[in-house]
Amino acid sequence: MKRFLILAGLAVLASAVSSCDENGNLITPQMDVDINSSSDVYAEDLLDLKSEAVAYDAPSNVYYVETSASSTLRGTVALSSTPATLSGALEINNAKLPESAQPKDGSLAQGALVLILDNPADEKVVASGKVEADDVKFNLPEFTVNSGSREEFRFVSINSSEKLIPGATDNYVTLPEPGKALDKGPSKIVVSDIVLSKPSTKAIAPAGGSYEFKVDAKYIAPLIYTAGAKIHLNRTFTDLKISLDRVNYPCPEYDIIMDVENTLPFDINFTVSSAEGIDGTLKNVIKAGSLENPVTTSVVLNVKDSSGKAVSNINTADLGVDLTAVEGASLQKGQKLGLKVSKVTIIKVL
């Protein structure tokens, strides 16, 4: 009953003060409904950083993703100057990576294929291999493993100018051009045809002994982005803790007015849609900020709704969140969006 009284009141008010434009179309005045609600949405929740594939590096204050191969590759090789190939392959399934690790445009600053090779021989071994990252194939450059050691090698693309992967090692190997596929967060990586041999010398090398070699693999990528990299998220108003329950009647068009304090290093845009006829876009973009320099943007989300349902029903609509990285963007602990919804401005009531 209360809902119908509200609608009737709005209709009476609209008809009392309405006018027509030069084409005879009815113009109704805008009416504000105070909301005055606040919410904080942390990066951990918005960007799914609680995923089992995500870890945190305290020294650099950066989140990163890490996925290991499903099994270890083992093989016995008789070392000689003639290369020998280990049988089998290493497969890394990145299906559990969050959207934040797989930019839809642009790339991460550095993704790495990490190989850990055990060399039980009493002499150095030269190794190489082949990689397929989704549909991109490339060769691993030769790398040398010291005798009687277990060494970690990080293969990074030619885009990489810094050592960004957490942990200490000097064994960074630059990949050829196709290796840039690692910076896109590939869904699957397969390492095969691992070839082992003794280092070549001018003298004829005597035959070496037979040794069991072991190779492990993983994918590691800090959540650091190149400028302009884009992430797309599918969320809901509930995920952003926005409630419009006070507007419990239908409106064909309205604006949601809010201030957003952003410490995420992304410019952010929202879009709203539903199969029932809800369509909405931000009139201006939420500007990027940082933990040291939060940036507050006053934004207007314009919504057109032909569903005939109450405005509060928007909580069930799909909310598209598009983030565009600024220079030096990285995901750190404590980053968040602070949303303060001040009011809903009703543009059309019937």
3D architecture notes:
The chain is mainly β and 350 residues long. It contains two helices and 22 strands. The strands form four sheets. The protein has an eight-stranded antiparallel beta sheet with strand order 3-22-17-20-19-18-21-16. Strands 4, 5, 6, 9, 12, 13 and 15 form a seven-stranded mixed beta sheet that branches. A hairpin with a 4-residue loop joins strand 4 (54-57) and strand 5. The protein is elongated and about 90 Å long.
Describe the SSE topology.
Layout: H1 2-17, E1 19-20, E2 26-27, E3 31-42, H2 43-46, E4 54-57, E5 62-68, E6 73-78, E7 84-85, E8 89-93, E9 112-119, E10 125-133, E11 136-145, E12 149-156, E13 172-174, E14 188-197, E15 210-222, E16 230-235, E17 253-262, E18 266-273, E19 278-282, E20 295-305, E21 318-325, E22 336-348
Parallel strand pairs: 12-13
Antiparallel strand pairs: 1-2, 3-22, 4-5, 5-15, 6-15, 7-14, 8-14, 9-12, 9-15, 10-11, 10-14, 16-21, 17-20, 17-22, 18-19, 18-21, 19-20
